[in-house]
Structures are given as structure tokens and as C-alpha cells.
């Protein structure tokens, strides 16, 4: 399979089946907010003063457990910020990362991770854990638990590892934050779906009791027979992206250069990375959508109706169009140059179309299109600019240049 096809398949699966894979997890040991933490055995830890940690010694302090694993990009990106909080708060709090992965695997990861090395962002991490995972089961990481004076005070998101929330808990003994519940399958507005309900559409803001649910899952209520189509706690932009993906298999990513904003404040409709935490943002701006009907239709037809519903109720006009935009074009050039030594961190890809997709995926460049039609295999080292990339593309008779082209765009327009 070509790498571009593989990547597109991954993004389609994210858009359409984000919450479908839910492995069975034993919740019989689960500790809820208000529960006292039982006495715990001494555990293996990395990056701490010693290689063992006894959580029982922190009974009179605030402990934050932040569950993670090496496949969680968000977890790793947040580590420098979490370390700054630990340094700022000092002995007021003990922050411990927790992973089920082995000590050997985590040691190797820390040795090889350049991002954390550059930022000196290594945090104490309990390794090879199974017990804490049983007390605080979850389906997704990061998964964050606040424990104060031996009592569970919050099960929430890593966004809340901030001085203001730590100080609030120490001062009042309480913490008012969003609850993270990976096991809540409730559907917003499902309760009033009695036998006499023929159909309805419901659009709301953020619903804290609902787990985020992307794509456009369609379920049937076993009691009424009604079909329920929904999107839970999504960015508005993300909801439209998923819906358009149902209409047509995506051939590219909706990166900023492919979106035309005609709104007063686009930050209401999409989260800006680095602006303070995605889940904090969602609590103010996320939306929920639900359509209930006696009959169901193919996914594409349901997606089309959902787009119309959201446009109407949100006062928007969001649609696909074409516009001339600044782009990067991959072209053929005459002759081939000598192959340059590949830098570390590279990869092998099939076809110039894959190179275009990877440039889009990086988020660092304008939309990229391939006009070369090159289908061969390319071995590319790491690059940090178009110039560095072109040094390598020249060997294959290719070049990536800035230009302007008419491309497919998403227009995001407010009606009022």
C-alpha cells in the first residue's frame, strides 16, 4: 500500500470510527471522586531521586497521577509544561507520570527522544504499572487524577495541571474541573425519545457528562426503534471535516491553507494549538449534535443532512468550493543531480503524491499538490526547509516550488 493511501486510511478511520474500538476494561476496582486511596506497594520509578517511590508517604500532600504511554503524542508534547508546573509549585505537589509499559521500554524511549532531551523535560514516571491502572481505568491518555490528603479529588484531563487549579484544591479542598469519563456511552438528549417521537434534531454546546465521539455513529434505540445519529463534544471545524469525509473519501488534509474564514473570531470554531489546553477550550466552545428518526439512510445522506442542520442552527454557511491559493507544487525538472547524503530521521515513500501529503501533514507549509506524476520510490532524509527538501528531490528529477493554483477549499462563513 502506498504511504499516502495508508495515511489517508488512518485519517478516514479517525473521522468515521473514532469511538468504535472500546476494549473491555475491568472496572471492579475503580476509585471514584471522594474515594480514599488504599495503601499501595512500593513502585518502580524513573527520573526521580531514587528508583522506587512510596505513594503512602504523600498522604498529607497533593499528588497528581498523569497516565501516559510512548504512543501518545499529546502526552509527550505536554511534558515540558507539566515539568514547569512542578518546578513552580515545588513541594506543594508531587506530579508522577504513570505507564504500564516496562522499565526497559521507557528507559530506551527517554534515551532516544530528542524533543524531551532538548527541553530537559524528563518527569518522574512510574513504570510497569498495573495496580494504578486498575484503580483508575481509562480508554485514552493522557488521563489525570488529583489525590489530596489520600482522597481522590478529580479524574480529569492533563489541561488542568496548572498552578491555579493546584492552588484552588490546596486552599479549598475542592476542585471544580471537567470530569473525564471514558466509559459514558450516554447520548445527549436520548432520554425523551419515547414511542411517540417521530424525529427531531438537537444541537447543544458542550455536555460535560458525554465522552467525545467523532465521526457520525448511527445507533438504534432498542426500546423505541428510533435511529440516533450523533456527534459529541466536537470542535465545530472538526465536526464539518468529519462530515465532509463521509461525503467523499478525503484526498488531502484540511490544513489552514485550504480553509477560507469569513467569521469574526475563528477561535470559536477551532482549537489553536498551544493556547492553553484543548479540553479547557472544549468546555467553552465544543458542540453536540443529534438527529433522531424512525428510519435511517446511508452515511453520506445522513452527513449531508447533518451539514444542513449545523449550518442552520449555528448560523453558518460552511461548504466546499474552489479558490486560487498559495501552494507548493511538486514538478519535474530536467536532468538528475547526484544523490546527497540522507540525514537521520528520514523515510522511504512511494510517489511524489506521498511527499505532498507528508508536507501537508507537517503543518509547516502551504497546501502541496503534485503535478509531476512521479510514482517511483523516494528515500528522503530529514529536512527543515523546502531548500533542504529540494536538495534531495533533485536526485529524482523533482522540485518543490511556491506557486498559485486553484484548489479545493472549505469556506467557513457566518450568516449573522
How would you explain this protein's 3D organization?
The protein is an alpha+beta fold and about 425 residues long. The chain has helices at about 5-15, 75-90, 105-110, 115-120, 130-135, 165-170, 235-245, 280-285, 300-315, 350-360, 385-395, and strands spanning about 45, 50-55, 60-65, 95-100, 125, 145-150, 150-155, 200-205, 220, 225-235, 260, 285-295, 315-330, 345-350, 370, 375-380, 400-415. The protein has a seven-stranded mixed beta sheet, with helices on one face. Strands 8-12-10-9 form a four-stranded antiparallel beta sheet. The two termini are about 45 Å apart. The model is unreliable at about 1-20 and about 190-195 (pLDDT under 50). It comes from Sphingobacterium thalpophilum.
Number of helical stretches of at least 4 residues: 11
> What's the overall geometry?
globular
Q: Taking strands numbered 1, 2, ... along the chain, how are they ordered across the largest sheet?
A: 2-1-5-4-3-6-7
Largest pleated sheet: 7 strands, mixed
Low-confidence stretches: 1-22, 189-193
CATH architecture of the largest domain: 3-Layer(aba) Sandwich
SSE order and pairing:
Elements: H1 3-17, E1 43-46, E2 52-53, E3 62-67, H2 73-89, E4 93-98, H3 103-112, H4 114-119, E5 125-126, H5 131-135, E6 143-148, E7 151-156, H6 163-172, E8 199-204, E9 218-220, E10 227-234, H7 236-247, E11 259-262, H8 278-285, E12 287-293, H9 299-314, E13 316-332, E14 347-350, H10 352-362, E15 368-370, E16 377-380, H11 386-393, E17 398-414
Parallel strand pairs: 3-4, 4-5, 11-17, 13-15
Antiparallel strand pairs: 1-2, 1-5, 3-6, 6-7, 8-12, 9-10, 10-12, 13-17, 14-16
Helix pairs in contact: 1-10, 7-9
Amino acid at each position: 500500500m502506498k504511504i499516502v493511501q495508508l495515511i489517508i486510511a488512518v485519517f478516514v478511520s479517525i473521522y468515521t470510527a473514532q469511538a468504535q474500538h472500546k476494549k473491555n476494561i475491568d472496572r471492579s476496582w475503580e476509585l471514584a471522586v471522594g474515594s480514599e486511596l488504599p495503601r499501595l506497594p512500593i513502585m518502580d520509578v524513573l527520573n526521580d531521586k531514587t528508583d522506587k517511590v512510596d505513594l503512602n508517604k504523600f498522604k498529607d500532600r497533593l499528588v497528581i497521577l498523569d497516565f501516559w504511554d510512548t504512543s501518545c503524542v499529546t502526552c509527550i508534547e505536554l511534558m515540558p509544561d507539566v515539568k514547569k508546573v512542578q518546578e513552580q509549585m515545588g513541594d506543594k505537589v508531587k506530579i508522577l507520570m504513570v505507564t504500564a509499559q516496562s522499565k526497559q521500554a521507557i528507559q530506551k524511549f527517554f534515551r532516544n527522544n530528542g524533543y524531551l532531551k532538548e527541553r530537559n523535560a524528563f518527569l518522574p514516571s512510574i513504570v510497569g504499572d498495573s495496580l494504578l491502572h486498575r484503580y483508575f481505568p481509562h480508554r485514552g491518555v493522557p488521563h489525570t487524577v488529583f489525590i489530596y490528603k489520600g482522597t481522590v479529588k478529580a479524574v480529569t484531563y492533563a489541561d488542568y495541571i496548572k498552578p491555579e487549579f493546584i492552588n484552588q484544591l490546596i486552599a479549598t479542598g475542592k476542585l471544580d474541573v471537567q470530569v473525564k469519563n471514558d466509559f459514558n456511552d450516554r447520548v445527549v438528549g436520548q432520554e425523551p425519545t419515547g414511542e411517540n417521537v417521530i424525529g427531531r434534531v438537537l444541537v447543544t454546546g458542550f455536555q460535560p457528562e458525554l465522552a467525545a465521539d467523532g465521526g457520525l455513529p448511527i445507533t438504534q434505540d432498542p426500546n423505541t426503534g428510533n435511529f440516533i445519529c450523533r456527534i459529541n463534544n466536537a470542535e465545530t471545524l472538526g465536526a464539518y471535516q468529519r462530515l465532509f469525509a463521509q461525503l467523499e473519501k478525503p484526498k488531502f488534509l484540511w490544513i489552514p491553507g485550504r480553509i477560507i474564514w469569513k467569521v469574526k473570531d475563528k477561535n470559536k470554531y477551532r482549537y489553536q494549538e498551544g493556547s492553553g489546553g484543548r479540553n479547557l477550550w472544549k468546555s467553552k466552545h465544543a458542540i453536540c449534535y443529534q438527529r433522531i428518526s424512525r428510519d435511517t439512510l446511508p452515511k453520506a445522506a445522513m452527513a449531508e443532512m447533518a451539514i444542513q442542520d449545523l449550518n442552520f442552527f449555528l448560523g453558518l454557511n460552511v461548504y466546499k468550493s474552489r479558490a486560487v491559493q498559495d501552494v507548493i507544487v511538486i514538478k519535474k525538472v530536467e536532468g538528475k543531480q547526484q544523490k546527497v547524503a540522507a540525514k537521520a530521521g528520514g523515510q522511504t515513500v512511494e510517489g511524489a503524491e506521498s511527499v505532498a501529503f507528508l508536507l501537508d501533514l507537517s503543518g509547516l507549509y502551504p497546501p502541496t499538490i503534485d503535478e509531476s506524476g512521479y510514482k517511483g520510490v523516494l528515500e528522503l532524509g530529514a529536512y527543515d526547509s523546502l531548500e533542504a527538501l529540494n536538495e534531495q528531490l533533485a536526485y529524482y528529477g523533482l522540485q518543490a516550488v511556491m506557486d498559485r493554483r486553484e484548489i479545493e477549499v472549505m469556506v467557513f462563513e457566518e450568516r449573522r
